[in-house]
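Weekly sync notes, structure subgroup
Attendees: PM, AL, DS (notes)

Item 1: joint prediction request from the bench team. They want all two components modeled as one assembly rather than separately. Inputs as received:
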Amino acid sequence: MCRIELDHVSLTFRVREQYQITLKEYLLRGMFRQSRNPLLKVRALRDVSLRFEEGQRVGIIGGNGAGKSTLLRLIAGVYWPNRGRRVVHGKISSLFELNLGFEMEASGRQNIIYRGYLQGETPKSIRQKLPEIAEFSELGRFLDIPVRYYSAGMLVRLGFSIATAVDPDILLIDEVLGAGDLAFRRKAEERMKSLMSRAKIIVIVSHDLGTLAELCETGVWLSQGRVQMVGPMHEVIDAYRQYAESPSTGAGGVIDSPDPLPADFAELTAC
Amino acid sequence: MTAYVTDVWQHRHFWLSLVQMDLRARYRRSVLGVGWSLLHPICTTAVLCVAFYKIFNVPVRTYLPFLMCGLSWWGFITGTVGRGCQCFVEAEGYIRQHPAPIAIYPLRAVLGGLIHLLIALAVVLVLTWSLQGFHNLATLPMVAIGLSILLVFGWSMAVLAGYINTIFRDVQHITDIAFQILFYLTPILYPSEILVRSHLAVFVKYNPLTYFLRILREPLLGALPSWRAYAIALGCTVAVTAVAVPLLGRLQRKVILYL
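Output from the run, pasted for the record:
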C-alpha cells in the first residue's frame, strides 16, 4: 500500500550571508573582530502536515520561494526534516533537476546505465531498456560522445528519458512538463501521461494552473513554507488566483502573518 | 546498521560502474592506458634509486622494490584522502536527486585507489622476483590482510575528509601541506632502522602511518611484520571507523545542506 505522510514537518536551512565559511575562518573566529559574514536562518517549511493515499493526484501551487520544490525534495527523501515525521511507502521516481547527476566525461549511453543503476535497475534490466531509452531521447550518434559536449536541452532530454523509463509507485514532478524543444515537449507530455496512468500517487509542482487543473484532483497551496490550503484542486486554484490577483498582495494582506513579508518567500532571520 | 549495509549492497551496480568509469576516464585519450599510472611510480622510483645509489651507495637490488612499494602505497594514502575530500561535492548531482546511502561516495573514492595500488604492487612483485628470487612466497598471503586493513582505513578516512571538506572547502590545502611533512616522517624513502640515532625516530615511531606501510611492504618483500605493527594499524583503523560510521547518519541528513 503506497502512502505519503508528513506529520508536523519543519525544515530550516542555515545560510551564510556572503560565502561559505572556511576552516581557517572558523578556527580564527572570535580572535579578531566580529565576523562580517553572519549566519541566517531560512524557514523553508513550517509545520507541514499532509497525507496522500493511493490513487491521489496532487498539485502543489504557490509563489516563488514558497517552499514547493523543498516540499517535493523532502517527500523524495533528499531533504530530512528538522522537526516532525516523514513516512513514505512505495518506490519513488523523481523528475527534478534533470540536467544534474551526469558523469561529464562518460558518454550518454554510459550515463543511461549509471543512472539506471541508481534508480534500482540491474545489469540485465537496463540492457533491455537501453535501446528504448536511447530511441526516446532521439540523441542518436550523440549518445556515443561524452555528455560534456551536450547542450542544456540535450541533457534534459537524456535525463527525462532515463527518469521516465521506470515504473514507480510514487511520481514526483517539479516543473518538467516544459522540458526540451517543441517536438520533444509533445512527446514528453504523452510519455508523462502514460507514466501518470501507471503511478499510484503523483505529486506535481507547477505554475501552469491550467495543466494542474486538468491532471490533479487534490490541491495544496503553500505560502511562506506553510500550508495555506488543502482541498479539491479547482477550489485551491480559485483561492490562489483570488489572492495572487488581489491588489493587496505583496503587503501580506491576505496572509495572516505576524510579520508580513513581501511575496511568498520563506522567512529569513538572523540566528 | 544491517539495513544500511544491505542498501549499500543493493546499489553495488551503481558504485562499481562509477569506479570502473573513473579508471577508464583516467586513461582516456592516452596511448599507454593503464601504463601512465604505473609510469609515475616507476619513473620516480628510478630517479630516486639512481640518486640514492650515487649519493648513499644504496644496494639497488633491494632498494628498488622497497622504494616502489612505498611510493605506490603513499600514492594510495594521498589519493584516497584527496579524492575523499571531493567525494560528496562531486556527487552533488546524484545526492540532489536520489536518497542513495551516502557511504557509497567515499567507497567510490577508495576503490579506485585500491585498484591502482594493486596494479603497482603487481609490478613490485615482478621486480622482487626478478631481482631477488622467490624468497617472499611464504609471507605473500599476509599482503591480503594488510590490504584489507588499508581498505577499511582508507574508506573511513575518505568519509572524514569528505565530511570536513564539504563544510570547509579549504581543507584540501591543509591536507596537502600535512602530507608534505608526513612523507618524510614515514619510512618510505628509508628503512626505519637507519633512524635509530636521529631525533626523527620518535616521530616515525609514533606516526601510525608507519605501521600501515609496514604491514603491506614487509610481507610483500619477504619479511613477517611484528604483531605490534598489526595491532597498531588495526587499532587506528577501528578508531577511525568508530568515528566515521556514526557520522554516516548525520551526513545522510545534513550533507545536502552544505552542497
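Discussion: Chain B has a mean pLDDT of 89.
Action: AL to compare against the crosslinking data before next sync.
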